[in-house]
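Hi team,

Filling in the usual template for the complex we talked about on Friday. All components are listed, including any nucleic acid strands or ligand strings, so the model treats them as one assembly.

SUBMITTER: L.P.
PURPOSE: interface mapping
COMPONENTS: three
RESIDUES: 194
SEQUENCES:
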Amino acid sequence: MGAPKQRWTSEEEAALRAGVARHGVGNWRMILNDPELSSTLRYRSNVDLKDKWRNMNVIVTSSSTRDRGRTSTRRTRAAPKNNDQLLAMSTITSEVDDEIVDVKPIVSMSVEGWNTSNSKKSHSRLDNIIMEAIKNLNEPTGSHRTTIANYIEEQYWPPSDFDHLLSAKLKYLATSGKLLKVNMIFSSLHHFML
DNA sequence: CTAGGGATAGCC
DNA sequence: GGCTATCCCTAG
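RESULT (copied from the run log):
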């Protein structure tokens, strides 16, 4: 007697990721009201968004033939927010008591080398993170630097001078042809190959 | 409204 | 049946 299951399309998932990138985790209503996303998400409620996000950020690695009886509940480990807790990233929790459920953020890249206080080394991984950000943002024509910055700040724990870093990196990626820059909008070649 | 825990539809 | 993605309930 519940409603029939309406599975999420990849377009809807992309819209949700973009929404979270723009407005932050937990601002489901705001995401729904985003003029760019409201049409794709028109069949979803704020609660649907919340539930879906919870589910998307979980990877279950238990083959489970032998799971404790309980109604199977998963432990979720939401992606870290831009708040005041040291990076608990890359904490691939192994097991919690008797539940052998192991989860990790969907965008799981190691960010080792990043410090909360400041950066000291070169971050060759930044390239990958930027690429991943643009890809996951999935905006039809590419993304503005500020949007990219917001997204990365959602997922990771960038140093305080991250804005400068990002600007420099984007500039480099653009001039080296790894990214396309048109009117302040950065897009990956990926955008034009589909 | 959002966060979580619970319930259930559907798949294998 | 077990299992997950989705849907429902409700405290705060």
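MY TAKE: The radius of gyration of chain A is 18 Å. Chain A has three domains: 10-56, 59-108, 125-193.

Thanks, L.
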